Amino acid sequence: DTGVSQNPRHKITKRGQNVTFRCDPISEHNRLYWYRQTLGQGPEFLTYFQNEAQLEKSRLLSDRFSAERPKGSFSTLEIQRTEQGDSAMYLCASSPRDAPTYEQYFGPGTRLTVT
Amino acid sequence: GQNIDQPTEMTATEGAIVQINCTYQTSGFNGLFWYQQHAGEAPTFLSYNVLDGLEEKGRFSSFLSRSKGYSYLLLKELQMKDSASYLCAVRRYGGATNKLIFGTGTLLAVQP
Fold first, then answer.
1. How far is the C-alpha of A89 from the C-alpha of B86, rounded, in Å?
2. Looking at the predicted structure, is the pLDDT value of residue A1 above 60?
């Protein structure tokens, strides 16, 4: 068990460019979450996958954002036409199928800076 | 809607005990989590309460009162490495998501 991994760890991009982040959850975890965290705030829920199905999307996730989990394993989060307000830490978390607490295990995050 | 409140910052002394409070207002309450987050790192799970009462785990304990919408995290025998942000998060019933709603976090500074 190597934990949740995310790539890249840091991304600097110019406004208007597209970016894509990857999350590899703990193997056999069927539940995967994306959160966004800005400085001094707690993480905010963006979207949730159960296996390959995207079951919930937050209203924070504008139409510039899209997430996929094509084979129920890794997931990608794409932001199109980035804006300075998209600058944040993007966290991925996974949880196992049958845990009584549904505890979520977080990855190290991808820090996005839009200039 | 939901609202989670916790103090922004706290300071405590190495070796002492500190209590971090969290109050929440939410419909469909389905458990309360505490996470620790060091600067620039991922949140790590500390504790989970779904029933009223105290859960103890080594130096860390967490308490829940559902009727009062109140929880606290108690840290004993503070160490310098406990300096971090402590996040209170509520899980709500609502389909299959089990998403967490986080507070803004309490930044704890442990001083020598």
1. 17
2. no
